[in-house]
């Protein structure tokens, strides 16, 4: 998987907001041919991508989609919490107020969005998500990386810590995907109708033994569970 492209048409998004918005129609591309894996095997994923951002909320990056393991039944709470069976996180670049930002949306019950200014107005962006453990517990950390032409990491800039991501991790599976979306309507799009995003340099680490996959390898995974 040296490189690939995702083309996102208008009116596509991944977003959950009360009282009733629950959109999940953005095009995605699987980064592991095995499909979802147990969340407790996830270690790290990194990807590089680029696009010509023109329209409000144009976005692309990495999607981690959590679903309940078949053996784990959601607890009965007497409420209609959408986060009981389906959670996700997306992070990358999003176009807002006329310029691209580094963006993260974490969705447990409902989506919350954070953005960070970036000096990268064009060219390639590299994002990494990784499991990290400290004396308070385990979190998912999101980083923006500055990469030299030879692939050497020059800077690692923290964007966000998501503390809930690995809670009750034995009950969840994670699907690791690249994603792109163009939430603007067809009439509101500026320029070409579809947002076209180029992806490359995929690096994934999973498993208790530190299995690693890169864009120079065939990313296939066999699990013994």
From TrEMBL:
Record InterPro entries: DUF1349 (IPR009784)
Name assigned to this protein: Uncharacterized protein
Biased composition (Polar residues): 1-10
Superkingdom of this protein's organism: Eukaryota
Lineage: Eukaryota, Fungi, Dikarya, Basidiomycota, Agaricomycotina
UniProt source species: Tetrapyrgos nigripes
Residue ranges of the region described as Disordered: 1-20
């Amino acid at each position: 998987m040296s490189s690939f492209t995702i083309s996102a048409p208008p009116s596509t998004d991944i977003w959950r907001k009360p009282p009733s918005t629950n959109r999940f129609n953005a095009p995605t591309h699987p980064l592991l041919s095995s499909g979802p894996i147990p969340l407790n095997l996830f270690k790290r994923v990194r990807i590089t991508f680029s696009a010509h951002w023109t329209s409000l909320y144009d976005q692309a990056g990495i999607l981690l989609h959590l679903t309940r393991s078949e053996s784990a039944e959601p607890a009965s709470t007497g409420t209609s919490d959408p986060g009981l069976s389906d959670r996700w996180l997306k992070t990358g670049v999003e176009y807002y107020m006329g310029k691209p930002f580094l963006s993260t949306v974490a969705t447990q019950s409902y989506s919350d969005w954070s953005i960070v200014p970036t000096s990268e107005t064009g060219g390639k962006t590299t994002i990494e998500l990784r499991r990290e453990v400290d004396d308070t517990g385990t979190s998912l950390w999101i980083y923006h990386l500055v990469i030299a032409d030879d692939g050497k990491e020059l800077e690692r800039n923290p964007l966000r810590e998501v503390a809930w991501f690995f809670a009750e991790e034995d009950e969840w599976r994670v699907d690791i995907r690249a994603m792109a979306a163009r939430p603007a309507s067809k009439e509101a799009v500026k320029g070409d109708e579809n947002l076209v995003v180029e992806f490359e340099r995929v690096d994934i680490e999973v498993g208790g033994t530190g299995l690693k996959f890169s864009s120079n390898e065939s990313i296939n995974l066999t699990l013994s569970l």
